[in-house]
Structure formats: C-alpha cells, structure tokens
TrEMBL record:
Protein name, per record: Dihydrolipoamide acetyltransferase component of pyruvate dehydrogenase complex
UniProt keyword list: Acyltransferase, Lipoyl, Pyruvate, Transferase
Biased composition (Basic and acidic residues): 82-95
CDD domains reported in the protein's UniProt record: lipoyl_domain
Length: 464
C-alpha cells in the first residue's frame, strides 16, 4: 500500500488561526516537486504561496477556492515519490507535518508565550527573545531579510498571488490581460485597468431573462408570457391599511457572507479590543486660522501627535492589562488606519518623531501603495505605539475610535470646516479641525489625556 503523507496548513508567519484558499495550483492526480507552488492562501495581511512539502503525486485536496482552513488542519495529501529525494521530517523548514496542537501540548507551553495583538505590538515575552523559525513557509531559514513574492507562471500567465487574487475579485480573465511588467509579468495596474475598461471580463455575457413558461392548456398558438414588472412597494396595502412585514428572524433577504482575510481578522481584533479596553473619549477643535499657505494636513497631524507624545509620554505607551504594567516608548511609531475594500489595514509609520514633512509624506505614500498592492510585510502591520484615524477625509466630525491593545490611545481627525468663532470685538470665520482622542482609562488619567489633546491643539495652531 502506498505511503500517504498528510500536509497540515502551517502558521503563515502571522500567528493567525486560519487562512482562506485563493486558488490551487494543482489538482488531484498531478505530480508536484518539492517546494513547487501548491496553492495560494489569503491571510489577514497578504496573499502568499504555500509550497509543496514533498515530491510526488497529489492524492487529495482539503477544501476549494474560498474555503477557510484552520492553521494546523489538513490541507493536502501526497503519495511521495520513493525514487526522489525528500526533505527530512526533522529538517526545520517551516513545514508543519503534524496536526494542530491540542491544549496542553508543548507548543502551548507558557514559557514561550508572547502576549500581543494582531494589530498592535508585543506586550510581554516570558521566555528569552528568540528568532521565529517555525512560521515561515518553504525551504527558508531565519534571517533579517524580507522575502519577496515571486511571479509564478501558471496557465501561461506570469503574476504574483496578490495579482491573481485581485483578478479573481474583479472578475478579470488574466489570460486576456496585456502585461506591462518586466519579463511579461501582469501587474496590479494591469488588472485594475482591464477591470475599468472591460477588456478582459471573466466568462460570457450575462444571460438574458428567460420568459416564464405557459401552461399547456393555454394552447400552442399563444406566445410565451413576458416577465411582469415587480410591483412597487408602498407603505399601505391595497385595502388602505398599513403593510405588515415579518421580522428578519423569520424571513431575510440576501445571502450570509462568510468574513475572510482582512475583514475576518478585523472582526476578531475589534471584539478583543471591546472586551479588554476601558475607553474614554475627549473631543475638541483645532483652530487652523494662523496657517500660512498650503500645508500638508496629514503631516501636520502627525507632527502634532509627536509633539503631544513628547509632552505627555503616558499615551505613547503599551498597557498589559493582565499584569497591570505600562511601557512608555522613547520613539513614536504611529499606526495609520487605511480603509480598503478588503477591510481595515493599520500599517506603522516608523520613527515619526525623526521625520520631517517630506519624509512623512514619502513614508505614507509607500505604506498606502504596499497596502493597495497587498505587498506590505506583516511586520509593518504591528508594533506601533499610538494610532491615527483620519476619517475626516470622507465625512464625520467626531468619533469614538477603537483603542487596540496593547496601545493606550488613538487620535481621530474629523472633516475640516469653516466655523464662526468669537474674537475680541466681534466674530470671524476660522478653518477648524475636529479632533477625537480615545484612550484606555486603565492606563491614563483624564488629566493626561486632556493635556495630550491640548498639546496637539497648540501645535496645530502654529502658522507652520
């Protein structure tokens, strides 16, 4: 009897409990070589290729595109080629050949526990710091270099997994997209352009409406009945009485949609934050009347946050609610909330306290591009010391932004407005920016938060 090996989904380097299958690069019965692309998986951070742990024949695939697979659960089964050189089971490559660990197993030993947040930074590590050698997928070893996704030639099309995922989402046929990248690689821009102009739509044209059938008794000489327009909804019935509707629990329209990837992780993080944090929000308006010339609003916001962090260090901190410890940071790494169709990303603007206006703008542009392309490293989506949500670029004046542990505070910037302001001897119209500061009241006092907000207001009031 053939020796069948089961491959279990490894931790894809982010400590998340599951991942979504984007596409399989093989089918049952195919032969595959060691470390060749097996499938593409979407996590909360990126789309990555999972390589094959064996050289041999694929005998079973656990799940189809769109299915969610838990970390440590069976992903695929193989019949290894007895004549081919296989990797030793004990070789440390990041492949996990055993099922997911149960509670009480060595993998869950508290001596190696790291208390952290998927959207925040590390709070506590009870064992000595060590490199992560069990979470990288493929024949790789620990190091400080960044692994860049390579474009794979599948079906005659060269593209990285993130591009393939975007094409699937936008219903674009990659085989009909004109590549503009080096060596004929299809880029994100190529897919977006094809989706915009409709030059590579996936599948055939939409089916036309089918007329309703006519009963046999109606006679063969009658034409099929044409579809009737749906009756318009009104608040009263034909009898002139108020229309009664059933509650959604009895009858609901639409189909439930399983949260995946970024949105799935966002739901977990927000629920954890709600359960762990004691939030309090202060609001005020920054007067920008003294500004000279056109200025970068985001850069000024970040500069004001940095100034406030230096003035009141207690909000530029991490808080460990379990052990009731607070860690103040000498540097300022700001998590910038970026809203996308896939969900919320919070990349970290590192060392904001040493960047000038041009440096801030360049760093934000780089982070946004990496988020849109889904090429941002997972390490850049955690470890920030305070957060900023610039929701006012869309709408809204004040908010209660969510503090994600282990951070202590988040600043929300609302939509700019021109307000009537009382001045000595009369009134004037000033441009003002609404600010909302939400903080964890376990780690900071109301006085600290008020002084932090005052420091921001003072910095934003300066001419330049």
């Amino acid at each position: 009897m053939a020796d069948i090996k089961t491959f279990y989904l490894p931790d894809l380097g982010e400590g998340l409990p599951d991942a979504t299958i984007v596409e399989w690069h093989v089918k049952v019965g195919d032969s595959i070589k060691l470390d060749a692309p097996l499938c593409s998986m979407e996590t909360a951070k990126a789309v990555v290729d999972v390589p094959s742990p064996y050289t041999g024949k694929v005998t079973k695939l656990h799940g189809a595109a769109g299915d969610i697979i838990e970390t440590g659960s069976a992903l695929a089964e193989f019949e290894p080629d007895a004549n081919a050189k296989q990797r030793a089971e004990s070789q440390d490559t990041g492949h996990q050949h055993g099922p997911k660990k149960s509670v009480g197993s060595p993998a869950t030993d508290d001596s190696h526990k790291v208390v952290a947040s998927d959207e925040g930074g590390e709070v506590e590590e009870t064992a000595a710091a060590r490199e992560d050698e069990g979470t990288v997928v493929g024949a790789m070893v620990s190091g400080s270099h960044v692994h860049v996704e390579q474009a794979a030639n599948i079906g005659g099309v060269k593209a990285v997994p993130a591009v393939r995922a975007l094409a699937k989402k936008l219903k674009v046929d990659l085989t009909r997209v004109r590549p503009s990248g080096a060596d004929g690689v299809v880029t994100m821009k190529d897919v977006k352009d094809a989706a915009a102009n409709g030059s590579a739509a996936l599948g055939a044209a939409p089916a036309r409406s089918v007329p309703r059938s006519v009963p046999a008794s109606a006679g063969r000489h009658l034409a099929p009945e044409l579809p009737q327009p749906e009756a318009a909804r009104t608040p009263v019935s034909l009898a002139g009485k108020p229309v009664r509707t059933a509650p959604p629990s009895q009858q609901a329209s639409g189909q439930p949609e399983q949260l995946k990837g970024v949105r799935r992780n966002m739901a977990r993080v927000m629920a954890d934050a709600h359960a762990q944090v004691v939030p309090t929000t202060l609001v005020d308006d920054a007067d920008l009347h003294a500004w000279i010339g056109k200025q970068d609003i985001t850069a000024r916001l970040i500069r004001a946050i940095v100034f406030a962090c230096k003035t009141v260090p207690g909000l530029n901190a991490w808080f460990d609610g379990k052990n009731l410890t607070r860690t103040l940071h000498p540097h300022v790494d700001i998590g910038i909330a970026v809203d996308t169709d896939d969900g919320l990303f919070v990349p970290a603007l590192r060392n904001a306290d040493v960047l000038d206006g041009a440096g801030i703008r360049a760093a934000i542009k780089r982070l946004r591009t990496q988020v849109e392309d889904r090429s941002i490293p997972a390490s850049e989506l955690s470890g920030y010391t305070i957060s900023l949500s610039n929701f006012g670029m869309f709408a809204g004046r004040y908010a209660t932004p969510v503090v994600v542990p282990p951070t202590v505070a988040i600043v929300g910037a609302g939509k700019l407005s021109h307000d009537v302001v009382a001045v000595i001897g009369g009134i004037e119209v000033h441009r003002r920016m609404p600010l909302s500061l939400t903080f964890d009241h376990r780690a900071a006092t109301g006085g600290e938060a008020a002084r932090f907000l005052k420091a921001m207001l003072d910095d934003l009031a300066l001419p330049n």
